[in-house]
Amino acid sequence: MQIELTIKIQLLNMNSEQIRIIIADDHQQIRETWKLLLEQDKRFTVVAQCSNGAEAIEAAKNFVPHVILMDINMSPVNGFEATRKIRSQTPTVKIIGMSVNNQPSYVRNMFKLGAKGYVTKNSSKEEMAKAIIHVYNGGQYICEEVKNRMRPEDDQL
Question: How far is the C-alpha of 124 from the C-alpha of 141, rounded, in Å?
Answer without folding.
Answer: 14
